[in-house]
Design goal:
The complex is a heterodimer. Chain A has four helices and four strands, in the order αββαααββ. Chain A has a single domain, classed as Histidine kinase-like ATPase, C-terminal domain (Heat Shock Protein 90, 2-Layer Sandwich), CATH 3.30.565.10. Helix content of chain A is 33%, strand content 31%. Chain A is of the alpha+beta class. Chain A is globular. The two termini of chain A are 16 Å apart. In chain A, a hairpin with a 3-residue loop joins strand 1 and strand 2. The longest helix of chain A has 21 residues. By secondary structure, chain B is α/β, with parallel strands linked by helices. Chain B has seven helices and eight strands. Classes of the chains: A alpha+beta, B alpha/beta.
Chain lengths: 115, 136
């Protein structure tokens, strides 16, 4: 993103959101992929995983809600902030999930114009 | 209770709003912390804020540059999360030792990694007194 001359604030929020998405896949899914599409004015992130899924997305978006195990907490994650942090850092957040099947996330980040 | 004068009040306001910045090497010296990774250039980097947590999820929510991460979490993910957040300096507290892969990744990314024998509370207390500001 540095090479594409993206504003540092945008670069940071995109990196944070992708890190959170990636962490969720590693901690809760059996496998998954993340694709990042670069446009001149926006960046789109598509994440798809196979795994336990999210039973109640609205509830999972609430800060502090977590189903993390003690093992996940020992790694420093599982505070129940991940999904809300993804939403906070992206301009458009779309999450769809089926229990015991998987989750799909689409994030859109509109880029600040660098003069 | 002793009443403060207007002059003292103005001084307090100024001191509270001063943008106090410390170089990382000053932080290491203040705490008598061991520098595990860091060279002259990275140790001269300035730090204004301190953030203490053992939860990386908390770290991923902050929104400040020039921040020192104070943590007892000695895992490779600590370095990765710090990279994402542009946190250039990490202080491992409670006598936690940096793992070889942490040292390698920190070195590759020009970060400073320090170890401190004391507790997180003690590190925060000393640094706050020295002028490092909280993130919020």
């Amino acid at each position: 993103m540095h090479a594409r001359n993206i504003n540092p604030r945008d670069s940071r929020r995109i990196a944070v959101a992708i890190f959170e998405v990636e962490t969720n896949i590693i901690l809760y899914a059996t496998q998954g992929t993340i694709s990042v599409l670069f446009d001149n004015d926006k960046i789109t992130v598509l994440a798809r995983d196979e795994g336990m899924g999210i039973a109640d997305v609205a509830l999972a978006m609430r800060e502090g809600y977590t189903t993390a195990s003690d093992d996940i907490r020992r790694l420093g994650f599982g505070a129940g902030l991940g999904l809300s942090n993804i939403k906070k850092n992206s301009d458009i957040t779309w999450i769809s999930s089926i229990v015991n099947k998987g989750t799909q996330i689409v994030l859109i980040f509109f880029l600040t114009l660098v003069l | 209770m002793k009443k403060i004068t207007d002059w003292q009040y103005i001084c307090m306001l100024i001191l509270n709003n001063l943008d106090l910045i410390m170089q990382i090497k000053e932080i290491a010296k203040t705490l008598d912390a061991t520098i595990v990774v860091g060279d002259e250039a990275t140790l001269s980097t300035e730090v204004k804020y301190g953030f203490a947590t053992d939860l990386l999820s908390d770290l991923l929510k902050i929104d400040k540059n020039k921040t020192l991460l104070i943590t007892g979490l000695a895992t490779i993910q600590t370095i990765r999360a710090a990279m994402v957040m542009d946190v250039g300096a990490i202080l491992l507290v409670r006598g936690k030792k940096a793992l070889p892969e942490m040292i390698e990744l920190a070195r590759q990314n020009q970060m400073v990694l320090m170890e401190y024998k004391g507790s997180m509370f003690k590190a925060c207390g000393i640094l706050y007194q020295a002028g490092i500001s909280p993130v919020y």
